[in-house]
Every structure is written in C-alpha cells, then in structure tokens.
Amino acid sequence: MYAFHKQIQPPTGVEHSAYCNFFSAGERSLVVAQASELTVYRLLSDVETTAKGAEKNIDGITVKPKRDKLEQLMSFSLHGNVMSLQTAPLSGNGRDAMLLSFKDAKLSIVEYDPSTHDLKTLSMHYFEDEELRDGLYRNIHTPHVRVDPENRCAVMLVYGSKLVVLPFNRGEGLVEDTDQATKKSAVMPSYVINLSELEEHVLNVVDIQFLHGYYEPTLLLLYEPLRTWPGRIAMRHDTCAMVALSLNLAQRVHPVIWALNGLPYDCAQVCAVPKPIGGVLVLAVNSLLYLNQSIPPYGVSLNSITERSTAFPLRPQEGICISLDCAQATFISYDKLVLSLKGGELYVLTMLIDCMRSVRGFHFDKAAASVLTCSICAMDEGFLFLGSRLGNSLLLKYTEKATDGVSSDIPKKDKEEERKEDGPPTKKIRSDDASDWMASDVALVEDPEELEVYGKETMQSTSSNVITYSFEVCDSVINIGPCGNMTMGEPAFLSDEFQNSLDPDLELVTCSGYGKNGALSVLQRTIRPQVVTTFELPGCLDMWTVIHKQAETSKDETGDEVKKEEKEEGEEDGQQEDGDGEKTSGDKMAEDLANSHAFLILSREDSSMVLQTGKEITELDHSGFSTQTPTVFAGNLGDNRYIVQVSPSSVRLLEGVNQLQHIPLDLESDITLCSLSDPYLLVITERGDVMLLTLKADQYGSGHRLSLTKPQLPQKSRILTLCTYKDNSGMFTTTSKKQNTIEQPTVERKPRTLSTSQAEAMAMDTSSADDEDELLYGSSEPKVAPSPTVKPEPNLSPEAETEGLSTQPTIPETCNDGPTFWSVVCRENGLLEIYSLPDFNLMFLVRNFPMAQKVLVDSVQTTATTDQQGQQHDMLPTVKEVKLVGLGHKNSRPFLMAIVEEDLLIYEAFASHSASDVAHLKLRFRKVCHDILIKEKKKGKKQAKMAEAPASSSARYVSQLRYFEDVSSYSGVFVCGPYPHWIFVKSRGALRAHPMPIDGSVSCFAPFHNVNCPHGFLYFNKQGDLRISILPTHLSYDAPWPVRKVPLRCTPHFICYHVDSKTYAVVTSSLEPFMKIWRLGYDDQEFEEAERDERFVASQKDRFSIQLFSPLSWDGIPNTRIEFEELEHVTCLKVVNLSCEGSMTGKKCFIAAASTRVFSEDVQCTGKVFIYDVIEVVPEPGQPLTKNKIKVLYDKEQKGPVSSLCDCMGYLLTSVGQKVYLWTFKDNDLLGLAFIDTQIYIHRAVCVKNFILVADVTKSIYLLQYQESDRTIALVSRDSKPLQVYSCEFMVDDSQLAFLGKSLNPVFYS
Predict the structure, then answer these.
(1) What residues does 77 pair with on adjacent strands?
(2) Mean per-residue pLDDT for 830-834?
(3) Whole-number Å distance between alpha carbons of 1069 and 1121
C-alpha cells in the first residue's frame, strides 16, 4: 500500500502501559503501546541535578527542575493496533513476555531476543472462526487480556461472551535449563469457555479481573445480564452482577465459587485488591464498592445521584462529590491506589481496614490535577506513569507529605458505638473521628496479646496515620494527537535568503488534544535554519572550527561543564523548556566566553585560510597555521587547550596562534583522512598506511607534545576508511558482566562523564598527585585502553550467558574506570574491524560489512585462524566513510554510521556476552531503520558532463558525516551531500532524522559557537556561500517531525488559514457546568433552572467560540473572539473563495462556519451559516497583533442542521439535512441558485471545478456536478456498496482524477 499511502508520523498517543522486566531480571522497563507502535523506556535517575529554574505550579502539580527522566531504548512497529497489553514471565530466563491482543480476536505473545536486540514471537493465536463468532456480523467488543497474579494462565475475552484460556507451561526445567526452555512451548494448548452456557448465563461482560490469594486461578466477571440506561432507571436499576470462576487448568473445568447480584447499573470496572487484604474494588460511575467472598459488601456513594439510581446499601462519603466514569486506577501499595478521573484530577484512595483485614471505610485525598489519563502504571517506588492519548504523557514522582497523626483514647469509644448503632461511619478528610477504625497493622500494635483477647476497642489508646502524597512532574512524552482537523499555512519566521525559493515553504497545523489538554501542534517537515549572515567564499572544499582555551582557565572548565550538564538535564522536552533552566546574564556570558570557537579554518584546493572569530571575523596573516597547503583536518587536543592541523604531508600542534610542534611525515602518499579522539589522532594515507599520534606530557617542560607511532596492522587488504571512538558508556568491554540487583542502573549515577584530561590522569594512577597540571595532563605515557589479555569469567553457564545478553540497558551511564578508546577500520575486502587504542589489538571483526546485515556479529573467532589476504571482493559496494559516535544521555548510546556507495547505514550497539574465552568485545550492532536518502537524482547527459569536471579536480574525499555538540542544546551527526539531514539523539534516547533541503546541497558543515552566533553552525551551500546560522529554538526536534505545541486549555475542533491576513481562525469549545433544563413548546423555547443539592454532579456542556491566531507568537489576537450561543455546536469551518465585485480577481477569501442546535427527538434541529471577513485596522498602542479584526458579514438561521459547506466556482455550497444548496453571496446575503435532494446525511463535501464529492457515514460517497448553463445540480455517480466513510477528498494523478474515501481501511477510487 505504499503506492497509495504511507505513515509519515508515527502514533504518539499512549493507550496501554506496563512496567516489567523487558530486557532481563535485573532491570525493569516501561513498555507503552501507542496504537501500532511499541516503545520501551527506562528510568534515568540523575541524583546530582541541581539546575536552576523557577518552580511552576500547574493545576496543583509543582513542576521543579527534573531529577528523573524516561529514556527511550527501543521502538517497534507492529502490523495492527494494540487492543490490550499484559506481561508475564514465560521463558524462565527472568524476562517478561508481552501478550498483545489485536482486532478482532487475535493474540500474539512476544519477547525480547537478546541475540538480535529485537522482538521474537513465542506464539500466535487466532480465534476468528465462524463457530466462535456465532453469527456476529460486526464486532464491537475489545479483546481484553488478563494475566493471573501467580502467572499460571492468561485469559482473553472475545466477542463479549467467549473466554479464551491460555495455560502457561510452568515446568521446573524451564528455569534450570535455558536450552530446553526454547524447545518447549511457553503456552500450553488453549481452550474456550462459552460464558452464556454457564449456570449464571453471563452476558454483556463489562470487565474481567483475576483475584489475589486463591489456590487456583480465580477470575471475576462483572456483567450486566439485562441492560438498562439512565432514562429507564425508574423501572429497572441495579442490573449488574458479578461471578467468580475457579479455573482448573488440568481438568478444564470452571466451577462458580462466588456470585452476587443487584449491583448498581453503572458499574464500570473492577480492581483486584492485593494480598493481604484481598477481594475486589468495583468502580461505578457514582459509587465505590468493596466486595470480598468472606465478608459483607461495603460501599460508599460519591455523589447524590445514587439516592435515585440504586437500592444497593451505600454510605455517603462526606466531602466528596465526584464521578468515576472513564477513571483509571492502579495500586501503589496493598491498601492505597491512585485514581485519575476523567477531568485529570488525581486522588489517592486509602482503604481503611480493621484488625481482621476488613475494609471499614475509604479515605479520598485529592493530590493534584494532571493530564487526561487513558492508562496509569505504577513504576519503581515513588514513580507513576500517566499515559494519555489526549495530551502529553507524564512521569510523576510522588512523595509522602508530613503525616497527620490522629490519636484517640477511651472516651471516643462511646462515639464509635453510637456510630455503629446509627449506621456506618463516614470518612471526612483528616477527620479525627475516623481514627478508631482506621487501618492498623497487627505488627505495629504494642501489646498484641491484649488485641487478640479483648479486641481493638478495649485498648487504652490507639493511633493511626493517613499518609498523603504530593506529586511533581519529572518528565513528559510529547503527543500531537488526536488530530481532529488540520491545515497548511506559511511560517512566520523565514530567513530572507529563502524567501525566493521555488518550493513553497509551508507548515502543518493540527488540532490536538481535548479539554484542558487541547493544543495546536505546529509541524514542519524540514529544518529551516535562521541565517545570521552570509559570506561568498568560492573554492572552499572543507572547513573546521576550533576552540582555544587558556591554560590558566582550566580550573573553571569543570564548573562550565557542570553548568552545561545542568542545563541539558534541567530542560524539558518540547515546549516545556520555557521557563526552566534559565540562567542569569552573567552565567550566559561566562559560558559564551569559555566555549566559543576561536578560529575557522577553510581548506581550498591548494591552500588554506585561517579566520579568527571574535566579535568580528578577520583573516590571520601571520600565525603558526599552515596556509600554503590544503588542510586535511583540524581539531582540538588536550581538553581544547591545543589545536592540531593536519596537512597532506605534515602535522602541526598549536596553542592559539603559536606553533608548538611541526611533524613532517615522510610517507609515500599524501594523507587523505584523519580522525581524532583526544588524546589520539589517527591519520591514513592514500595508499592505506595508518599512523597514530598521541598527545603526551613533555618531560622537559610544562606543555604537551605529539608522539608518532606506526601501528603494526595486518596487511590483509587495503584500508579504505577509519575512525576513532572514545567510549563513555562502558559497553565496549572484553569481560562478561552479570546483573545482580535491580538497583544497578540507578545507584551508580553520581560520577559525571569525565573530561579527557581527567580520564587520562586516572589511567596514569596520579590520583594522589597534588599538582593541578600533573593531575589534568599527566606526566607519563597514557594508559587508556583495557588490557586485551583480560579473560572472561570461567564456567559461564547458559543462564549467565542469557543474562549477559541483555546488559545493555542496565549499564551505568558513566564508566567508573574512565573512558576507553577504539578505532574502527573498514577494508577493501569488506571487513570491518575494531581495534583497541593505543595497542591496536583486534577486538571485533565483521565480514561483508557493505552488505548491510541486520545484525553485525563478531566473527573474529573464525577469521583469526583463516587467511583472508587472497580473497578479493570485487562485487562488494565501497565503504566511503565510517563514524562511531556516542550519542544520547551522557554519550552512552554508541551508534555506528557508514556511507556505503550512496547509502547511509546506521547501527546501534548493544551488549551481547557469549561464553567464548576469547577476550573480544562483548557487543553486537543492530541496524536502525531510517528514511534518509542521500543518493542524488539522475542527471541528464549534459548535466552529468558538467558535473564531472569539478569532481575530477578534487581527489580528496570530503567527510559527509559531521559530529556536532551543543547546537542549540542538541547533539548528533549532520549528513552533508545533495540532501542534507540532521540526526539528533537527545537524552530522550530516540534517534530523530530531519532533512534540510531548503538551501540545496551542503558540501561541508561545522558547529560554531560565538558571541554573535551562540550555539550555531556553519555550512557551505552549492553556490559556495558560507552561511552562519542558528537552529530555531521555538521548535522541538526530539520528535518525528519538528513540532511546537501551543497550549489552548480548551478543545480545538476546526482550524483554517486565511491567506490574505496570514492568520489562523480556530474554533474551540470549553466545558461549562450546565444545570438548566430545556422546556420546549411549539412556539417558545426557554430554560428552567434545576435545583439540586450540593453533592449533585452537574452535567457538562460545550460552549463554542471562534478566534483568530497569529503565527508570529501563536497567541490569540485580542478582541477577535466571538462566542456562539448556548447549545450551538459548530460542525464545519472553511476558508471559501466567493465571488466579490470589489476585488481585482473577482473573488475574495472569506471564513465560513456552519452550526447545529440539537434539542431532543421531539423538536426539529436547526442550524446557522456564518460568513466572516478578516479586516485590517489601526493597531492599539503596544499591541501590534490587533491590526486584524474579524467582522461578521452573514449570520442567519437555516431550515435544518448545517453539516458541511465548501465553495464551488465562486458560490457557497451548504448541506442542510438531506439537501445540498448552492448560494451566491451578494450584498452580505445568500441568494439560492440550485439544490438537490440526496436522501443521505452529508457530513463532508469537497469540490474541484464544478464537481462535488460528498460523503455519508454509512452509504459511502456520491459524486455531484453543478451545471451552470441551467443552474442545476445533478447526480453523476455513487458507490454501490455501503461503506463507513469518515472523510473524502479528490486526488489528482497526472491526467486522472481519483477519489479517496477514508473508512476503517482507506479506499481508493479512480
């Protein structure tokens, strides 16, 4: 289907979440399902985060500088939307398998595969045969999956009345022998229970849940055998019931052990209470029930609606007036659970129990107001994840407040007896009267014998505490859905250099979210740099920027690094960065001066140019740099203190403009490529010879010098390219590591990423030195690589091997032993080799690397004894460039990138420990899928001949993969070439690739940090212009597309772009409490106020409005908001081109809106058509946005509901009920031209020329045509098959006109 459609934006709304041992038993991960995407996160705990920033208070949640974050480790694309997600340990290796259900009745059991760093399918189950469907034509039931708490089985409810039971294979051999675990099936044969054939005749199942504390798996079913609805509760109420089945998996019998009828009709879900309390909580819309098999039920009413809706015995919960419809709940302890209501309010519910573990009351504590939650998941102690498909998902940290101790003594016993006589006690918030029967643990009683003999009431004194919690936001996952309506418009900020671009530069604006999570999402497909200035410098082939640090400022460098880390860790992703991590002007100035680039080195074909970059950019005439020869490479050494410049035949070491050392290299060919990882510099010649230069402390002075060595590499095949890598992740190791405790990834957080000089000093064992220079730079030969003779742990069992395969997510973010250094070498025969530096021991080898295998596995064991010199691989593609970089949080995620011919390969490293005794790297590389295309389009013969001339004159290959750091707080790799791309990996952990085609081909790139261009970058375009640019910071690039979310705090429904005024018209609605009743007659319609008590939950009604927004600041333009009447719903909003006599073209853009007023089935619906014009006026002083006003031109009621409208040949087309009208707009009034009766309900209408395409929600699409000669609308064609069409559009393909109808599955008509 890629010929017709392609998913360009992956789903971002979280619908399901689970916290499990995804990778191994040593670490727990958060798994979230976003429609067809499965994403795995881990919790990062940054103990040393002390970022400065003003605290925010959003809906009662205190937003502080974050200490904890979610890091995305993996993401998987599935072939269907996940309907339910559960986890269970099945393989016996400590990992949890995931049970994923899909429509209509499909189930997949998948697990993480440590050998391929991917998902593997354990089993697939299909229950869609006709016998199970039982004649069901359309399935409206969601396949719910539940797992037994003891992991004995799982069940899936299909078609609302069939229960599929999947027993788990819990053989003891599974844990002992991993090999046998793979041979045996983790799931035994399943069987189906027909619930309608039970004694209780279970129908219309509402929810299912396993219970805790039973010998056999016990499943509780909440169902409604005879349905009712709120309009019929006077005749039929308390229609829900529950039944508990004991599942005997061996005999496949399921007796009913517990049943209860007469539950309130509005029971919505059940929550199994963990041990030692047990039982189940039933969440109804207006009440809360606790049921247990051994004790009488206990329930409370949450509002006064229960007085007329149920006869179930309920006690009023004083001080509480809420409803639990659409609520989400999870337990954070055995007697406490967190409730997230449909309005986003967070309540901590404490079950108050007595000495017999019986629930005697509930305590509600409103903790905060948060996002509208669709999934809630308890993580590590103190953390909570709120998944939402209506807003950004949040990671919350909850902490206990100061406990309110309530003590009671003997005189209060009389009060308790009085309450028992009158009725059950009611719990007030922090009420002193509740302390007598509040939760008390037997282990906390000072005199247990007195409790056992006489009971709690006869004790001399009792005390109890109700623990309250405070919540704070730690992190958020951006969500741009659900996208209700979208439009395209012009961006407000675009550099003058790109104004005359041939391709239109547009941005996509969508309506996102609902209620208080409503927002506008501004999406851009590409990155548009903000150009500061441009220089014409023709003939430049490459460039580098270098930093010059004074030696005496080394004491302040550590502080600057700390501030830099604090800034990165203290920022929120997306638009939540505003206001956090703000620094004073003095701190910013100090940072700019400390890390600014001092020199810009430009390389030409036969010379070099050195520019000094300060407040002004000037050329250096006399310096230690070489300007008579082209420059191959330039960079920084010695913690940015020294500068190294590599020419084709020599290497220079400089400190500032002063040359310290000049090393002429007498080689048979010129140097073509260099790679630097402080303190090592690798150079390679055109013949393939490799030289290593190491920065060492001078024994006779206080400075450093370069030491030249020639490594003894095997001459198997010519070396094509190489790179060096400094590993801070600790993943590049030769020893196998076992996972011991789950605290491993969170305890070892304190050490920061060490600077190069500090790591070098640690490696030289100079920790006891007092001299600062000696500690920073060392005084002997650095020893930074691990010894290649380290042997792995002997007698490594297969179980240990399996555990070691998944150590990638559990490694600390920093390596305690200091960084290690490595070199990646690609040869002509297709071998990729990784050597340790500086001793050049072969640690990793891959055959046929240019063939782009999915997983790169170390094959050094077999190739160590095989001679590969005689083999030539002439058919293999050529590797032009390779780069191994550490990205992400503290550079702990190694990525291997390579350009093979005209393709870009990206691999991510993951730990993979084997039982081999060979001391080689215990890792593998997994291929990362991406959409980056760098291959240039095919040219004609004339263009190809013209392009060959300059290409042949430049023999040296210019690097296309450019690593950058802290470009507008982002780090990653820039891909040069005809189609330049940015590759970002922030602390979130996801790899994001964004194209930058706005300036054409980019020949070279370099980061540039200057006072006049803070955290910017430089690049040369195809015309030879040097652009000094910065990355726009109003967008978040840590997303599939660059995005900016504009919070509205209300629900956006429609948006359209007015081209003439360059503004957006947005229709929004906000919920308002509505306590009125319509009294409708034949002549008059009026409101009547309804009198209700204070515990009555008022209904909510949408109040619509329209307002103009400016893309300059994305704020609503003052005095442009127009409120619609009560009960008036806007159904359509469009910009229409209508005929206008006063314009030059004969047409003018207007904003047209349609509305509908729905009362009841006894009164006919009415609607209105609105036509607005955006006019320019004199802006108010200090408010430049007020130059635009919205003017109402037409506002009249129609004979029926107006469901859609559009423009057709300068006329306005409206759909009123079943009829389609065509109007002409003249003198601010609509005059009828033509109409047609379609006998369908039209909810969507689009027009091309005189053809009109309309859509019905059940009868598919119709094609109409307006005949101007006789002013009639005729039916041309229609779809003969019924189809649920939600949207329709024309599609032009060359000379063909096609129709596109959007249903559950897209349909294409031609």
Answers:
(1) 37
(2) 93
(3) 12
Say if residues 981 and 975 touch (Cβ distance below 8 Å).
yes
Checking if the pLDDT of 464 tops 60, the result is no
Helices (runs of H) and strands (runs of E) counted in the chain: 14, 87
Residue whose C-alpha is closest to residue 354's, from 310, 404, 290, 306 = 290
CB 871 within 8 A of CB 831: no
- Asked if 743 and 381 count as a contact pair (C-beta separation under 8 A), the reply is no
Q: Strand pairing partners for 280?
A: 272, 291
Alpha helical stretches, state H, 255-340: 306-309
Alpha-carbon distance values, 554 to 397, 611, 612, 770 (Å): 38, 25, 22, 15
DSSP alpha helix (H) spans, 321-430? 412-422
Cβ–Cβ < 8 Å for 273, 362? no
* Residue 543: both structure tokens together: 């460039």
Q: Are 855 and 117 within 8 A, CB to CB?
A: yes
pLDDT in tens, 486-506: 999 998 888 878 877 767 788
Task: Say how far apart CA 814 and CA 759 lie, in whole Å.
Answer: 12
In whole angstroms, what is the distance from residue 330 CA to residue 338 CA?
6
Contact between residue 1006 and residue 636 where contact means Cβ atoms under 8 Å apart? no
The pLDDT of residue 719: 92
State the Cα–Cα distance between residues 749 and 165, nearest whole angstrom.
44
Q: Are 735 and 792 in contact (CB under 8 A)?
A: yes
26 within 8 A of 740, measured Cβ to Cβ: yes
78 alpha carbon, distance to own chain's centre: 16
**pLDDT surpasses 70 at 1267:** yes
134 or 831: which leads in pLDDT:
831
**What's the mean pLDDT when you consider all of the chain?**
80
Per DSSP bridges, beta strands 832-836 and 842-846 are: antiparallel
- What amino acid is encoded at 1305 in this protein? N
Residues 6+ apart with CB under 8 A from 965: 971, 1007
Give the chain's radius of gyration (CA, Å).
Answer: 35
Is residue 277 within 8 A of residue 203, CB to CB? The reply is no
Residue 240, CA distances (Å) to 224, 262, 267, 271, 341 in order: 4, 6, 7, 16, 22
Asked if 115 contacts 805 with a C-beta cutoff of 8 angstroms, the reply is yes
Q: Are 907 and 896 in contact (CB under 8 A)?
A: yes
- Residue 890, phi then psi, degrees to nearest 5: 55, 35
- Closest CA relative to residue 455, chosen from 428, 421, 416, 425: 416
Contact indicator for 174, 231 with CB cutoff of 8 Å: no
pLDDT at 576: 39
Of residues 1013, 1002, 1003, the one with CA closest to residue 968 = 1013
The pLDDT of 1105-1113, averaged and rounded, is 93
Q: What is the pLDDT of residues 265-294, one digit of tens each?
A: 999 999 999 988 999 999 999 999 999 988
CB within 8 A of 545, min separation 6: which ones?
597, 599, 600, 601, 613, 1006, 1007, 1008, 1009, 1018
Global pTM value: 0.84
Whether the bond between 838 and the residue before it is cis, its omega within 30 degrees of 0, is: yes
CA angle 800, 805, 808 (to 5 degrees): 125
Judge residue 543's burial from the number of C-beta atoms within 10 Å of its C-beta, 0-12 exposed, 13-18 middle, 19 or more buried: buried
Task: Determine the Cα–Cα distance for residues 1018 and 1020; give it in Å rounded to an integer.
Answer: 7
Rounded CA-CA distance 201/161 in Å is 10
Cβ(1217)–Cβ(1200) below 8 Å: yes
Instruction: Confirm if 871 and 899 have CB atoms less than 8 A apart.
Output: no
For 463, the token pair is 């005390």
Distance CA 351, CA 439 (A): 7
